[in-house]
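ok so dumb question maybe but i'm new to this and my supervisor (M.) told me to 'just get the structure for BnaC05g19700D protein' and walked off. so i did the thing. is this what she meant?? sequence i used:
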Amino acid sequence: MIFYFVLLHYSRRRFHAFCIDKWFRLGSTCPSCRIIPVAHITPV
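this is what came out, is it supposed to look like this??
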């Protein structure tokens, strides 16, 4: 069985991809620390 992980850079935590996808359908915060992610846009 293969598990995929997602690293949330703003909170430095990782989660199973399936679990975090379900979580983000319900809200937009980190499930552990409740930090609200901020989009980082890199100018070109």
